[in-house]
Write a structure and sequence with these properties.
524 residues, alpha+beta, Rossmann fold, Elongation Factor Tu (Ef-tu), domain 3, Alpha-Beta Plaits, 8-stranded antiparallel beta sheet, 13 helices, binds guanosine-5',3'-tetraphosphate
Amino acid sequence: MTTQIQDQIQARRTFAIISHPDAGKTTMTEKLLFFGGAIRDAGTVKAKKTGKFATSDWMEIEKQRGISVTSSVMQFDYDDCRINILDTPGHQDFSEDTYRTLMAVDSAVMIVDAAKGIEAQTIKLFKVCRLRGIPIFTFINKLDRQGKEPLELMEELEEVLGIESYAMNWPIGMGKEFLGIYDRFNNRIEQFRKDGTDRFLPLTEDGELAVDHSMIKTSYYTQALEDIMLLNEAGNDFDQEKVRNGKMTPVFFGSALTNFGVQTFLETYLQFAPTPQPRKTDADVEINPVTDEFSGFIFKIQANMNPAHRDRIAFVRIVSGKFERGMTVTLARTGKTFKLTQSTQFLADERETVEIAVAGDIIGLHDTGSYQIGDTIVGGKKTFNYEKLPQFTPELFVRVTAKNVMKSKHFNKGIMQLVQEGAIQYYKTLHTEDVILGAVGQLQFEVFEHRMKNEYNVEVRMESIGNKIARWIQNEGDVKESMSSPRSMLVRDRFDRYVFLFENDFAMRWFQDKNENIELFSLL
Ligand code: G4P
């Protein structure tokens, strides 16, 4: 591999932004793209959200519901880095795609609303990041409005998420009285709503303002200094190793909307964010990104981006080597070899054909149905599979039938394809073999219904069976079908494994009390 390609790989930073809806993910993304010069006017991402770019059926759903279904990828340059941001669908109705996107990044940025603290969806997404042990950087947003006390927010981070935190900077005042941030890392104070030379004020060795300034007389400044002293004495020490392993999150305060603290965050983040990381194969061999052989895995398949062509796009995270358009690759699962001629790269607001991409990048491949989520593609002669992507425990379930029984062939074909694609999870009841679908978010059902109608010409009837707690069984041999009851329904998944669907926590505990020998487990 040439040093030029090696340098290109080392310059990559691939991350996702996780947050609860409304915390400011879109606003933050816009500002980052703006700094990277990828958009001229920090308003285009938002325009997309309101449906101006309705180019597909998916976006039709988005438009109707005012939410973002499709997670996109955006690329921009800053300093000497090439940054890939993977967006995660951020509505209440997020889906397994959101989780799987986190399998394709090397780090995550978590945005927290200062007034709300850690919210439900953030916790779920955080857990997936935690499991992978990837670095997580926290941006506490909306400091231009009154929020919780900063020390309270730090405590909440540590308690709710169970992670150590280190404040890289600290707010001076808040809301109407927001004066700026005390930047511990760069040893300066950054003033709010001040541009030009006096935006940054230097600190003395003792950590106090080195210049005369009206701020010194305010109680906010005194309070910030007291807090910093407390952090210095009783807080965690910055530990780069812990940051790298996702055991400590560096915390930044700011306001995305007023573009305050974002650039400082980006610059500091880039100093610590990991370059493309190695990945393990299912034979436990680690593949280094800087190797000659191209390889990658598919973490998402998006259908119907253009309904006229019924095309699908398979999103590939390149793990090693270099991709060149027209190159020959092998799909490890089938052993089939083919040329990759139709490849797409994602820019801030458009897609364009990509000629070359390297480890760390995400490319989209035109798919006529050959790919499945989790597939590995390899450039060289020796094929291998990357570790399986995790399956996530669904929480919502519906019983589904075709409205017209004559259409059962199409119905089954449609379901099987959508299940393979990872759009939805499939279960069946024991004797009657009724089809039950499981999802992480309600939206997956809507997308399923829409696609069955549009792509397979089948109208479906869905009957909600509500929220369930799904548990798989370690010692399947000990399960008896008589253990099934309306409150602890026994079904099979698509791999024919037994699964209990419990009505609630109580039903699960009751079952466990009665059947102590049955070892239940949850997927992620
Ligand atoms: P999301 O993608 O995480 O869902 O959040 P988004 O960026 O859309 O932001 C949600 C709301 O919070 C928006 O207001 C946005 O303007 C506001 N917001 C984001 N960052 C800040 C900040 O630093 N300070 C303040 N005060 N507000 C912030 P909205 O009224 O819902 O939308 P819009 O009318 O502004 O478009």
